[in-house]
Each structure stands twice: as structure tokens, then as C-alpha cells.
Design goal:
- The chain contains 2 helices and no strands.
- With 53 residues, it is mainly α.
Length: 53
């Protein structure tokens, strides 16, 4: 099993809030996409300050 199915099974077995689980997954995916957009499309690197000053 991959991480997704493992965490899904754990959540279902513990009778946790499945909607909260999926919201966290969507939030993580969106954040990763936004970071990818910053790096690949906007050529932004958090620790590269070549344009400062």
C-alpha cells in the first residue's frame, strides 16, 4: 500500500472525520502545486536573492 491508502485505512479504522482527512490531502496537494508553480513557471527560489538590492 502507498501512503495514501495506508492513511485512509488508519483514518477509517479510527472512525475519524473522513472529510477532514480529504481536506488535508487537498490542501497539501494545492500547496505543492503552488510551490511548483513558483519554482518552475515564475523562476522563484526561496533562497536565491540574485535580484536583491
Amino acid at each position: 500500500m502507498n501512503d495514501f491508502t495506508t492513511e485512509l485505512v488508519k483514518t477509517l479504522l479510527k472512525v475519524k472525520d473522513i472529510i477532514k482527512f480529504f481536506r488535508q490531502l487537498v490542501e497539501s496537494a494545492v500547496n505543492q502545486l503552488l510551490l511548483y508553480e513558483l519554482i518552475e513557471f515564475l523562476d522563484y527560489n526561496k533562497y536565491n536573492h540574485k535580484d536583491s538590492i
